[in-house]
Amino acid sequence: ARYWRRAEILTDVQFCEIRYGGNPAAFLRGFKSIYLGLFMNCFILGWVTRAMVSIIAVILGPVIAQGRVLHLGILGQYTLGDPQNTALAICIFVLIPFTGLYTFIGGLWGVLVTDLFQFVLKMTMIIVLAWVAVAKIGGMHALEAHLQTIRENVQATGVTTSDPTAFLPDFHHGWGSSAIWTLPLLTFVVYLGMQWWLAWYPGAEPGGGGYVAQRMFSAKDEKHSLGATLWFNIAHYALRPWPWIVTALVAIVVYSPNGGLHPSAAFAANPEQGYVMVLRDYLPPALRGLMVAAFLAAFMSTVGTQLNWGCSYLVNDLYKRFLVRNSTEQHYVRVSRFITVLLVLASGYTAAQLKSIGAGWELVLGVGFGTGAVYILRWYWWRISAWSEISAMIAAAAVTIALSRVSFVGNDAMVYAKKTLITGGLTTIAWLLATFFTRAESNATLVAFYRRVHPTVYGWRPIAKLAPELPEVKDVAGNAFNWLMGVILVYGCLFGIGKLVFQQWGQGILLLAVAGVAGYLIFWDLSRRGWETLSGKQIETTTQVVSAD
User: Fold this and answer.
1) In this predicted structure, which of 240-254, 313-327, 338-352 has the lowest mean pLDDT?
2) Alpha helix (H) residue ranges in 404-536
3) Residue 199: helix, strand or coil by DSSP?
4) Which of 80, 496, 500, 548 is least buried, going by the fewest C-beta atoms within 10 A?
5) Which among 164, 239, 257 is positioned nearest to 491, based on CA atoms?
6) Could you tell me if 239 and 492 are in contact, meaning their C-beta atoms sit under 8 angstroms apart?
7) N- to C-terminal Cα distance for the chain?
8) What are phi and psi of 502, to 5 degrees?
9) Residues 295, 122, 67, CA angle at the centre, nearest 5°?
10) Between 340 and 323, whose confidence is greater?
11) How far apart are CA 49 and CA 61, in angstroms?
């Protein structure tokens, strides 16, 4: 967070021409602006639109079938046919354009303000839904009892199962288990030991990036940037999941064909709709309307973020950088509006092509796997070059596409783990070869970056010698300590809240206390080392030194 804030840039793609130099850096900036801003961004928009289509189709299915959506009458039914088509049309022609409207008006500031309101609304309503759903089936103890009954019924059919309420995988099933409601040990090891540092995916980019980095750029100073990033991780990974998890468990209890309270063929055919089915069947009408509003808020929050993010790449890093360099701001605003319309149309097409939400997520993970290490090391190792990033991105995409045509043995989790290991390994080999067999960046480029960002001297020793006026930063141990405490803080909150949800009070309070101690130690260490703000100062220093040279 501190390094991103010191860079003083508008987008993380702009970082390419600060960290690297020459034609490869320019190519990388243009390539990433199209790859991320257009293709990947449209894919993410299509993926979240697909999720919203499922929600609308379940909630408004009867209304759509009667041709009464938006007073379209018979025209709506016979023109659009299946409720999924009508739901897709509502997303593309109503929800996304409305989101684009306030994105036009407010820009990033408007997105941030509406995000705050929408976060509060959707968190409130998903908690209400989880509470009501659990109460309707008799409480948490009844939920656990029903889940145990369903588990026994599934086992009676010959399928291996595990405890769906367990916080960790069932290691007794071995490395390649096909048991449901748990992960094979191999997949768990991949998640815990590799994915967090090796895989790029939206919102959790190793080394930072995307819309998370966009928020870092916008922070008042480094202290605010670091604090906001820490809060995002707590809210996103520890606070937000539990209401969704609880309601999903209720969906299993209610709709499972293996002993559910009200077995549903629709749920058996498409379990992804279970959450919305609970909303439809268990919330009273007034709360149902608020819940739909919360879903709309969540959808528009994501769409607004993605539209702003994609436009920033395509306008700032492609159009303004390579096509029209010296026009007026009004001109670039008009171009951004046109690009927003383009993104809306492309995302709708992508949503129509995706078979499922899960398929979209797997592809997003696949094309980013193996690139994460480069995005981390470019801050800490001077030898990383533009060709390192280019080769990593191309290799990851090529291997992912090639493996999509290969049939693997095992369940979905095992297939994912195998593809991940192969993609990550081949991509890592590719970018390492590119790093050592291509020329390093020029000393002028590396020294300018070192003076601007002032990274830790380890990994930058040859460059640090060329900038003797800067004091050496040796904060690897301190940063590693804070990283470890941050992991304990987030996981302590995640599991602590979960234990409280399942009414295991002692363990929950203990885990939250451990998380509180970890948070205090982070604050203590940063206060001890000082909250000195370097943002803005390094630009002036660099300018003075370059002028003197």
Assistant:
1) 338-352
2) 412-437, 443-453, 461-464, 476-501, 505-529
3) strand
4) 548
5) 239
6) no
7) 30
8) -90, 15
9) 20
10) 323
11) 17
- The answer to whether residues 357 and 47 touch, using CB atoms and an 8 Å cutoff, is yes
Which pLDDT value is given to residue 336?
A: 86
Can you state the angle between helices 96-136 and 210-218, rounded to 10 degrees? Answer: 100
458's tokens: 């380890």
State which H helix or E strand residue 79 sits in.
Answer: helix 74-80
Count CA within 13 A, CB hemisphere, residue 41. Answer: 28
- Taking only the tens place, the pLDDT of each residue in 410-429 is 777 778 888 888 998 999 99
Top-confidence residue, 533 or 118: 118
479 contacts 376 by C-beta, under 8 angstroms: no
> How crowded is the C-beta side of 380, counted as CA atoms within 13 Å?
12
Amino acid at 39: F
Residue pair 6/208 in contact by the 8 Å Cβ criterion: no
Nearest by Cα to 454 from 545, 364, 356: 545
Number of H helices, E strands in the chain: 27, 0
Cα angle: 357, vertex 361, 367; to 5 degrees: 145
Q: How far apart are CA 57 and CA 75, in angstroms?
A: 17
Q: What is the mean pLDDT of the chain?
A: 83
What's the burial of 43, exposed, middle or buried (CB within 10 Å: 0-12/13-18/19+)? buried
Q: How far apart are CA 545 and CA 538, in angstroms?
A: 10
**Structure-model confidence comparison of residues 65 and 240, the more confident one:** 240
**Tokens representing 213?**
């980095």
Q: Which two tokens stand for residue 309?
A: 């993010």
Q: In this structure, are residues 226 and 538 in contact, taking their beta carbons and an 8 Å threshold?
A: no
The predicted structure's pLDDT at residue 420: 84
Burial of 104 (0-12, 13-18, 19+ CB in 10 A): middle
Tokens representing residue 316 in the block: 């700032």
| Ranges 146-150, 204-208, 378-382: which has the least confidence | 204-208
Give per-residue burial for 118-142: e unless 16+ CB within 10 Å, then b. beebbbebbebbbebbbebbeebee
